[in-house]
Give the backbone structure.
Amino acid sequence: MQSVIKGKAYVLGDNIDTDQIIPAQYLAYNPSDPAERKYFGMYANSGVPDAQAGLPKGNIPFVAKDQFHSQYSIIVGGKNFGCGSSREHAPLALAEAGVQCVLAEFYARIFFRNSVNGGYLVPIETAQRLVDKVQTGDELEVRIDEGHVLNLTRNERYDIRPLGDVVPIIKAGGVFAYARAQGMLK
Amino acid sequence: MPGMTITEKILAKHSGKDRVTPGENVWVDVDVLMTHDVCGPGTIGIFHENFGRDAKVWDRDRVVIIPDHYIFTADEKCHRNVQILRDFVKEQNLRYYYDPAFVKATGMPSPYLDPANTSYKGVCHKALPEEGHVRPGEILLGTDSHTCTAGAFGQFATGVGNTDAAFTLGTGKTWLKVPATMKFIFHGEIPAYLTAKDLILAVIGKIGVDGATYRTMYFAGDGINSLTLEDRMTLTNMAIEAGGKNGICDVDEKTLQYVRKRSTRPQWEVYREDKDAQYHSVYEWDLATLKPMVAKPNSPDNTDTAENCREMKLDQAYIGSCTGGKITDMIFAASILKGNKVKIPTYIVPGSTEVHSDMRRLNLRGVPKDKNEKSIEEVLRDAGCILGPSGCAACLGGPKDTFGRLNEPINCISTTNRNFPGRMGHKKAGVFLASPLTVAASALTGYVTDPRDFVTQRIETGMAGVL
């Protein structure tokens, strides 16, 4: 895990569910096949209604047409980010598109767990609601160890909550790496 | 020291501890792991990558694979995914696999001809108890958020991702944070015009789609005891729609009767709450005061009463899924549709091939029909419904050629579980979630309709869905 993550923000609202992050029709791709895995990046966030895609303006595609990567590497969300299905394809799709962390008020349980255990991205809880403060395209610098985010575009600073119990798993890079480091697995 | 809840007792037992408390992280032994065609291939890939190409699963009798999501589609990637499951089952010599044998490499598969005679079972959450993989007191993990359905049988059941499932495949273990329990008590007997769907929509409307995040939802009271097991499954099924980690019900004679008949293992343990168990919060409802509910687009907590939505015009009705495609759901719907004609296209998808078989075998009272009686399936067809083969189908949209999928920005009323944007297909389609009674009543008028306009007496379901 990098302790400083720098990049452009893509802002979404509350209750962004996994069908919006990766619509079910694309789940036919096999994430274990590298040639197919990259398509999860292409379709990441493609289920978000156009008006809510890239707040506050909306109608901003997360990934440009026919591209596999996004120019945005930090997602800003509201409450209950990643609710809905258990599909690990959701954090995987964001990671394939180039997302390194999500900043949200809080997460749905399975999305949080999948992000951590699969080592896809860092799900960070914010101390205050950032959806109304950050705009899509803002340059952010997330300083995980220092516990805050700098908005370089607006010259603002926001606090984030400690990652808590899951730090060792995130630092190891996922639950398999963690279990090996602990001697649970060979 | 305070007492424990049912969920705490199950987690304590499976982590080798005398007691656990909410917030504590524990490593537990898993009893059964289930996966399907959408998350199986990814899980298998991660398993091979981390444990090795020649690795064996921790217990070949405790892994259950049930293809159900993308079965009736011409998409060749979906057929390939079923083949990945078959190869893994063979490689691991797994005992419990339910093959859609009619899925070949190309083309739209022809459905089974006789639902009573096929290895294919349909939706995993319905097939798991039917095939004997659900027992009180156990821990079930599944690569599907609606795995929580099995909590109706008094077990701890929850959805996990591919990585967690792969870890359990190799080790038989997982780590869990012990959830605090929210208790939802229902008083009185369920009235004829309500089903458990109305109860759970009322709960989600009250606490919100994040109201039970990281917590257990425990459904208790004589109101819950008055429900059939299938209706209890509707409650626990939608625990995830409030963000719940698991949903759970008390074990009673109805549970034991079902499990005794079906279980692949002869033993299980029944846990009961301690009198001084600690709850995060307690909510109470009187069933006599509840009205038929709907969740309007685009969130399961955007609830209202059906009667308040009478002006909402609909384009389609859908009865199916793990939530609302059980045999009792079909009897509820057929009781209203009997002798009438639907005004809007109405799609019916049996939750499992057993449900489909029972739709042909049983009458509207849920007992084997006489020669001269109509079957549930015949009643539904006579009403103008369009019947598809068992599976997850349009509940989660799926490939474009999925039966009943919303490919246009239309309004659909559905017995399914989720109505976030795009859930059943088109991003701009609107989905109203409701009970099978409300969906059937609405199918007859073309508008959201309160089933009290149609239901005049108690709908008996006999032993349907049990024996």
User: Anything to note?
Assistant: The helical segments of chain A are 18-21, 34-42, 89-97, 109-117, 167-172, 175-181.
